[in-house]
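Note to self: keep these together.
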Amino acid sequence: MINKLVMATNNKNKLREAREILAPLGIEVISQQEAGVDIEPVEDGVTFEENAVIKAKAIYNAVKVPVIADDSGLCVDALDGRPAVYSARYAPKGQECEKILDEMKNVPDDKRTAYFECCIVYINGEDIHSMSGRCYGTITREKRGMDGFGYDPIFLYGNKTLAEMSPDEKNKISHRGEAMKKLYEYLEKKKGE
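Structure:
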């Protein structure tokens, strides 16, 4: 029976999303900091899944309780899929959107397609399970919205950017929301075992 798990992150936004989505299962989600772990594993994988596995294993080895870790990023078609696994370090903190907008200033509207991808890895001893989600949209020409984080203000889904959506709206359609739903289903099945 899983009552608590550690999320391999100190990102308050990711933690909040995970807590909201997994709350109905009665599973407490704590950050690695709350679990007393102060390590930042080197994410040198070439895929989101490889990086999530690296983080999950490192934190699991420190706490020996169930761990979830994710890696996610923005993949822009006109930029040959960049920034992808380099999304968090593609530009100085707070300048990510500006860098993408600048690189895409001459890209026509019909070529501004992109997607967010998220891979979540659950680990508990030998039990390692990964699930992923994608959210397809387009890149705007300017930042819009005050909610969200990272590239949310420039990622258009329907007629709103992710930064213009409420947390509930975003959780229903986002890449992390999709992967978390798969995690929810997996954990729900495990609780029944």
